[in-house]
């Protein structure tokens, strides 16, 4: 089931033209990631909090 997400925020690595990804949270505490080019109408990747923490940790480790 697709969750409803709120509190969307843009990546700090956003391009000047506005192309970026946004991250939001659902009431069930899952994390959603979407591409801003679709103005919020495109697909959303859904992560558990554990999976999101592992994903972002891996990104930071790769520097």
Main sheet: which strands, in order across? 1-2-3-4
Residues in helix, %? 10-25%
Strand segment count: 4
Helix/strand structural class? alpha+beta
Sheet with most strands: 4 strands, antiparallel
Q: Could you tell me the radius of gyration in angstroms?
A: 12 Å
Give the averaged pLDDT, no decimals: 86
In whole angstroms, the N-to-C terminal distance is: 34 Å
Total of DSSP H or I helical runs spanning 4+ residues: 1
Tell me what portion of residues adopts beta-strand conformation. Answer: 25-35%
Q: Spans with pLDDT under 50 lasting ≥5 residues? A: none
Instruction: Give the SSE order as H and E letters.
Output: EEEEH
Quick one: overall form? flat
Write down the domain tally. 1
InterPro entries: DUF397
Organism: Actinocorallia libanotica
Pfam families: DUF397
Protein name: DUF397 domain-containing protein
């Amino acid at each position: 089931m697709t969750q409803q997400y709120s509190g969307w925020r843009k990546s700090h690595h956003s391009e000047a033209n506005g192309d970026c990804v946004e991250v939001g949270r659902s009431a069930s505490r899952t994390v959603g990631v979407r591409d801003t080019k679709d103005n919020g109408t495109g697909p959303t990747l859904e992560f558990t909090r554990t999976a999101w923490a592992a994903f972002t940790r891996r990104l930071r480790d790769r520097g």
